[in-house]
Amino acid sequence: MTTSLNGTAAQEDTNIIPFLPSGTFYFTHGIQAFQKRRFSAAVKWLKKAIEASPDEPLYQCQLSVVYTEVGSYHAANQVLTEVLANFGKEYVDCYYLMANNYAHLGLLNDAKKYVETYLEQPGDGEFEEAAKQLMEMLDSLEEDDDEDEWAFDDEDELLIYQETAFYHLEQEEWDEALDVLREMMELFPDFKMAKHKYASALFMNGDKEEAIQLEMDQLEEEPWNIHSHVNLATFLLEKRMSDQALVHIERLRNVFPMHDQQKLAVAETLARGGFYKEAVDRFRSLRNKQVTCRRVYYKWYSIAVYHTGNPSKALQLWEKGCRQYPKMGQEGGPWKEE
Prior knowledge:
37% of the residues are buried. Mean pLDDT is 83; it is low at 1-14 and 146-154. Helices cover 75% and strands 0% of the residues. The protein has 2 domains: 23-137, Serine Threonine Protein Phosphatase 5, Tetratricopeptide repeat; 146-331, Serine Threonine Protein Phosphatase 5, Tetratricopeptide repeat, CATH 1.25.40.10. By secondary structure, it is mainly alpha-helical. Helix 3 (39-52) runs antiparallel to helix 4 (57-69) and helix 10 packs antiparallel against helix 11.
């Protein structure tokens, strides 16, 4: 009886066909993990796909996309550089993906170089429209840099107006802020920041539709204006129009300004939109005391930190903000849902 059973098992063993997973098998699992936002698993599956099919550049490009999604921009570009080196320049989409990663890193010259290379390639690439938008954004950032250099020039009168408007805005004294900002716009018509602050104060003072229209008109003239996207995202979130707000937030997720005023505005907007991890990264990059003592810095950095699992630091930031801005104490705390 025992011999018969062993013989049967041995016979069955000879009929077993071993399963040898292919690169496609691993790649499919990697894509499924990526779609479920299980990024660590996606990286593991895609690396296995690359090991099984090292001559398939698609798998490496997808791995770079996962790295980009989790913020590992240098790692993503390393993978894409290897694809270009090993498989030739026919994989032109790599140029756009690299440009996008450099933009995230704030390396705007590199970003512009690679997006220009991508757009110079013959034919219509998969990312042609996105690449054109990225180029517009990079050109706009250069213009914003020039404007900001002038905005903080040592012109005493302008600085006095800026500080006065800032004080009223921080204290949520909207009527007073609007009066000062109206004067600023009349005296300094080329100082565009006053227009955005005016729209913000107008919205908070109750003239919501007028404020939204002002920024929509501005956006028609300058589609990549950071401050317009910041204001419109904020306005629409306040009106519980999350889907419409997300359009502007997505634009800002790809923007890495050079100046701390703009960095703070983007960080605050990402926190408002619930992109807490990205917001924390942006807040951490701020060093200038001119922005790290702001009310919005304490409030929204605290909220973002709380929602990324660090309640003790969140409370520390909140309490520090409340000491400087007592009205914050009436807002509940970083755990309170906006």
